[in-house]
C-alpha cells in the first residue's frame, strides 16, 4: 500500500512523537514514503500507514538521541574552552594590538567613565586612557568605551587591532554591519564605523570580566575621581 494521504500520516505522527523541526519531519516522511513505494512496486510488500509511522518514529527517536549526545559533547567542549579562553587575558598575535575597554556608570549622578588599555603581543602596555563621559545610561557608556578604544588605535597608528569587551550586548551590536541599533547608540556606532575604516583590520571580541580586569580596574578608579592617561 502506497501512502497518498499525507495529512493522515502527519496526524498519526503527531500522536507518536513531538519534534521541533517540521521541515525535518517532511524530509523523513518523504524519504520513507518513497522507500515504501519501491518495496510495494518492486518487492511486492504491502506497507501499511502504521508501518511507515513506526519507521519514522524510530528514525526520529534515533536522531533526537544523536542530537542530545552531540549537544552534551558541544556544551562540555564549550565549558572547557570557556575556562581557558574567556576567563583569562590572552595576548594578540605578533603585529596586532589588543585594546581592552570597560566602563562604569552611576545611575544617581548620571556620571559615566570609560577605561581603555592597549597591549601588544608581548603583553607590554603601549597605550591607554580613561575619562569621564556624558551619557544617558549604562548602554551608552558601554558603546562609548568601544569608540574610545577605536580612537586610541587610530591615534597610535595601529592597523591591526582587536577591541575586547566584557559586554556581551555591545559585542553583539559591534558584529552588526548596518544595524539596526538602539536609538541612544545609533550615532555612536556610526562614529565607530567611520573610525574603523581608518584601520586595515579591526575586530571585536568578547571575554568574561575576569579577562578584562585591567580595564575594569581603571574604570572603577576613574569613577572614584582619578585621572589617567598614558602615551
Number of helices: 7
CATH architecture grouping of the largest domain: 2-Layer Sandwich
Mean pLDDT: 75
* H/E element sequence: HHHEEEHEHHEHE
Largest sheet: 6 strands, mixed
Silhouette: elongated
Task: Kindly provide the radius of gyration, computed on alpha-carbon positions and rounded to a whole number of angstroms.
Answer: 28 Å
Structural commentary:
The chain is an alpha/beta fold and 231 residues long. It has two domains: 6-85, no CATH class; 97-230, Ribonuclease H-like superfamily/Ribonuclease H (Nucleotidyltransferase, domain 5, 2-Layer Sandwich), CATH 3.30.420. Helices cover 51% and strands 19% of the residues. It has seven helices and six strands, in the order H-H-H-E-E-E-H-E-H-H-E-H-E. A six-stranded mixed sheet has the order 5-4-1-2-3-6, sandwiched between helices. The longest helix has 37 residues, at 49-85. The chain starts with 5 loop residues before the first helix and ends with a strand.
Topology:
Layout: H1 6-16, H2 22-43, H3 49-85, E1 97-106, E2 111-119, E3 125-134, H4 138-155, E4 160-165, H5 168-175, H6 186-196, E5 201-206, H7 213-223, E6 228-230
Parallel strand pairs: 1-4, 4-5
Antiparallel strand pairs: 1-2, 2-3, 3-6
Helix pairs in contact: 1-3, 2-3, 4-6
Organism: Corchorus capsularis
GO molecular function: nucleic acid binding; RNA-DNA hybrid ribonuclease activity
Protein name: RNase H type-1 domain-containing protein
